[in-house]
Amino acid sequence: MSDTKDATLPPGIRRLHEGMARVWANPSGLGALTVVNHTSVGLRFMVTGAVFFLIGGLLAMLIRTQLAFPGNAFMSHETYNQVFSMHGTVMMFLFAIPILEGVAIYMIPKMIGARDLVCPRLSAFGYFCYLFGGIILTSSLVLEMAPSSGWFMYTPLSSGEYSPGLGSDFWLLGITFVEISALSAGVELVVSILRTRTEGMALHKMPLFAWYILAMALMIVVGFPPLILGSVLLELERAAGMPFFDVAGGGDPVLWAHLFWLFGHPEVYIIFLPGAGIVSTLLPVFARRPIVGYGWVVAAIVIMGFISFGLWVHHMFTLGIPQLALAFFSAASMLVAIPTGIQIFVWLATLWLGRPVMSLPMLWIVGFLVIFVLGGLTGVMLALVPFNWQVHDTHFVVAHMHYVLVGGMLFPLLAGLYYWLPLVSGRMPSERLGKWSFWLIFLGFNVTFLVMHWTGLLGMRRRVFTYDSAMGWDIYNLISSVGGFMMSAGVALLILDITLHFRFGRKAPQNPWNAGTLEWAMPKPPTPYNFVSLPRLETRHPLWDDPELPRTIAAGKHGLNTIEHGRRETWGSDALTGKLREVVHLPTNSWWPFFAALALAVVCICLLVKLYPLAGVATLVAVVFLLRWSWENGAHPKAAPDATVAPGQPPLHSRTMNGPGVWTMSVSHLANGSLYLSLLFGWFYLWTVAPEWQMPETSPLSLPLLAGAGLALTLGTAWLAKLVRRLRGHSDSGLGGGMYLVAGLGALQSALLGLVIWRAELAPSETAHDATLLVALAYVLIHALLGALLCLLQGLRVGYGFVGAEAPLEPVVVLRLWYYNLIVYWSLFVAVWVMPTLLGGAS
Amino acid sequence: MKRLLRMTHPIHLVVGPTLWGLWFVAIYAGLSVACSVSPPAPEQGTLTGINVAVGLATLATTVLLLGLSWAGVTAARRAELRRDCYFAFTSAGIHLFSAGATLFIGYPVVFLPPCI
Predict the structure, then answer these.
(1) Contact residues, chain B, for A322 at CB < 8 Å
(2) Residue of B nearest to A325 (CA)
(3) A478 partner at 20 to 30 Å CA-CA among A173, A369, A682, A686?
């Protein structure tokens, strides 16, 4: 039982709690698969991420065992290649990102005073995609078919010729599947942070953690699509022979490096930012004063979010890029030290001006500061081109990377784990076991990786599987391996501590660390509805300014304190001011996310084993599940069984024209647009750089058909915009018919595009030109079909009374897709028809 | 729309880095394409059309960002609401950083030939 819900609560309030518990209940047994609540889904992400961390750690120990002695025959080189490729892959894709997403999914609503994230079914869907993708990927280890080309899968090493078998396919399909989860969380977190903060929480009063997660989520949304595109293209090359990265067919392997690092470098900051967010949250609590320079930190976060996208080429300094371009990226790489430095000085100033208390979470923060600063320094060294050339692909880089990632992510994560553990379990961790664990991990880490800098400077390449004693690397490798096992012992102790604390931990008080943020105003462990009433906040430290808040929230003295309507709901607020705008009604437990993810897992497996017709059927099934999921939305009785709101409250979001759904669609298009721009980049890159690129004399695409398809799209968009304008004027006359007409125009566009592709007689397995053109046309065709399908569904929903003048949101959301399609279509038309025609057919 | 143009709107937190990003993509892409299509002779050194174009783009972007930074400071001084003052000052700082970043990244055109 929580500390804020006691037997002395008045009967009316107790009934309110019981009603909330009924409406927000998580089913058990098989029904647990339907749970969509952010607390449960966040915990699932974290526990699954921890399991993958142990798998990745086990692989690391295998690597250190192999390298401990010269000439070691512990593993064959084939196995070693699989082990180190999977170590990096598991740690980067299945541990670091998902566990941080889990922390964000779990914490953000609690910190911004919301009851759940804005699209709970999307969270659940993302989790299942992550779980199934992770299982598919790691099963390759058991099947002894794991990828062996390294965690960044450079072509041509990972291409069909040099990596036959299914290893690369496991990576490409599994990672793409897992990335769906990251994008889901990214979109969801952005919209939730911007639109569901509690009343009065203006943007500049938001907890710093939310700023960090907002930046991380936006970076995921923009940064992950290039990798998804790269993975799709490489899988198409391997499965269908489309030569995107094959020089002989007009492709270029460097395109893969660009697409990978366009994702890969921002990913380092995507991992670091939540870690820094945890530090910025915890440090003021243990320094016992507000953070110094809130605005400086916000500025540093924004700068870091942008600059980190301008550094990707510093991973490619040895690929033969002109010196001037190298200088641009070298300078940009050095510049990123400035926002990092700002944050470090802010943290130091906060400690300096505060009265620090050295408790367990703080110990991990201190460890973070030491390790991360060292990693940052070697980062600046690596930004210098001549030094980078010198140590490229050596253990020096491996050591630097671990200092930045383990220091920047794992140490803050463990600080956060100890800090928020009482919230999750209601019990305090053991200081003694925790300190033992810290020192073993801290010392073990430094023994492993500090020494590795020397090994690297002595010339040991990062992927060698064994070495001769004459190289002089013996003692360094042995020390590193001893350190690695020391670190593992620390991790084992950490697991023991956390496991024991659930049973033996001392009961935690309401606010055990005397924190100022809102999550400590809720019951421990948290109820599925978080807060029974949602407070109005005007301060960055609500609990420091009003220590009575936990009691008044539990007593139902704040907003949204009724449940008779049977809806799950939270506030929808203005992104800037935190002023109330809507009551957001949230979906309840649902099977659709699970079914949709399961169908996509079947698609993934079928593609892996090359059962393409079955993959097609499974794709259709997944689409049907996703559309069925979308049916239970808006004014559907399952989404909002009762549309009445209390007097004085704002309307339900589905009864407005600018609900969070519009934001969700817009943020999704940031991701979609990033994928499209990566595709355009690929087209122009191959056109201008690939040595064997062949541009035909005349475009193979029919101008009348292309123009006709564009005309149908333009007319459809204009008509839909007109329908939405009418809805703004509270008129829904002709809405259903209009939707069918727009759907018809979308179908016409799709048919004409199909004809364009058919009549072009492309040879995608022969030239990169035709392959890229086909992918680009398929991209717009899929969007055209989606636009038509959604309008068809809207027409049906108008007939059922789910959409109309009283519930006008959905057409506004669909219009966003049509606008996007319009921009993409005509810009693609210019890129693939107008420009090649004007510039001539020369390569 | 008018609201977005005011220097006190939080959209300006990202305007500076966005302009920086557009400039960065433009100079890198421009350099790559120009070197691919018509690379100047190595003996020309730094005095090439490519370097001049990149240099001018760098200067123009720096001046624009400095102007925006100054506009942010002015708006912050005039702001009546604490929120407006906060966003204008923070945006001004970010604009200033973006201006510095533009100049720092672009200045190698002075001593490096473009396509070698």
Answers:
(1) 31, 35, 114-116
(2) B28
(3) A369
Q: Which residues of A touch B83 (CB under 8 A)?
A: 202-204, 577
Tell me, what's the pLDDT at A641?
73
Predicted complex ipTM: 0.94
Q: Is the pLDDT of residue A770 over 70?
A: yes
Residue A426: other Cβ atoms inside 10 A: 18
Averaged pLDDT for residues B26-50: 89
pLDDT digits (tens, 9 = 90+) for A595-622: 999 999 999 999 999 999 999 999 999 9
> d(Cα A313, Cα B105) in Å, to the nearest integer?
14
Write out chain B residues lying below 8 Å of A295, CB-based. Answer: 86, 89-90, 93
Q: Which helix (H) or strand (E) holds A573?
A: strand A568-573
- Amino acid of residue A372: F
Distance between CA B78 and CA A304 in Å, rounded? 28
HSE at residue A796, side-chain half, CA atoms within 13 A, is: 12
Chains A, B: CB contacts within 8 A come to 93
pLDDT at A6: 57
Distance between CA atoms of residues A102 and A122, nearest Å = 13
Cis preceding-peptide flag for A525 (omega within 30 of 0)? yes
pLDDT in tens, A132-151: 999 999 999 999 899 999 99
Rounded CA-CA distance A746/A751 in Å is 9
Structure tokens at A708: 């006709």
C-alpha span between A433 and A269 (Å, rounded): 31
Beta-bridge partner residues of A394: A461
Interface of B with A (CB under 8 A): 9-10, 13-14, 17-18, 20-21, 24, 27-29, 31-33, 35-37, 51, 54, 83, 86-87, 89-90, 93-94, 97-98, 101, 104-106, 108-109, 112-116
C-alpha closest to that of A534 among A116, A86, A46: A116
Q: In a 3-state reduction of DSSP, which class is residue A583?
A: strand
DSSP-assigned states of every residue in A610-651: T-HHHHHHHHHHHHHHHHHHHHS-TTSTTT-S-----TTPPP
- Is the pLDDT reported for residue A538 higher than 90? no
**pLDDT at res. A839:** 83
- Terminus-to-terminus CA distance in chain B, angstroms? 46
Q: B22 contacts in A (CB within 8 Å)?
A: none
Task: Write down how long chain A is.
Answer: 843
Select the residue from A194, A311, A324 to test the B interface by mutation, using most B Cβ atoms within 10 A: A324
Residue A656's alpha-carbon distances to A203, A560, A561, A812, in angstroms, are 22, 18, 22, 10
Contact status, residue A536 vs residue A434, Cβ threshold 8 Å: no
- What are the C-alpha distances in Å from A5 to residues A107, A427, A510, A648, A748? 21, 17, 11, 28, 59
The model carries a pTM of: 0.95
Nearest-CA residue of chain B relative to A205? B83
Rounded-to-integer distance, Cα B90 and Cα A692, Å: 49
Structure tokens at A282: 């915890």
How many Å from the N-terminal Cα to the C-terminal Cα in chain A? 72
